[in-house]
Amino acid sequence: MAKLPDGRKDDAQKPLTGVLIDFSRALEEVAEVGTFGARKYARANWLLVEDAQQRYYDAMWRHLLASGSEALDQESKLKHLSHAAWNILAVLELQARNTKQ
User: Fold this and answer.
1) What's the Rg (C-alpha) of the chain?
2) How would you label 86-97 residue by residue, b for 16+ Cβ within 10 Å and e otherwise?
3) CA–CA dist 96, 101 (Å, integer)
4) Alpha helix locations (H) across 1-101?
5) Count of other CB atoms within 10 angstroms of residue 36
6) Is the CB of residue 90 less than 8 Å from the CB of residue 46?
7) pLDDT tens for residues 24-65?
8) DSSP 8-state assignment for residue 18
9) Could you tell me the pLDDT band of residue 9, with boundaries at 50, 70 and 90?
């Protein structure tokens, strides 16, 4: 039986995506915001919003500013900071999608 060569995987220059587990609680809170939005509107509806990047930036700032005086969003009962994080991730995702097209 022939000996197999040593295993090789060229991932040295790739991001260590496993580091995201360090933020598992925070990401779960962001997922709760996404779930709230999906149930209120429809899943992936956020991709159809006109002038989306500007509107998500504005929403991010509203939630960041509100977090200085109250922890929870009155409508969703979720943290303003979780909403802010969701909004900036939406902007980042839209920019990434536009770059790769």
Assistant:
1) 19
2) bbbbbbeebeee
3) 9
4) 24-40, 52-67, 80-99
5) 18
6) yes
7) 999 999 999 999 999 999 999 999 999 999 999 999 999 999
8) G
9) confident
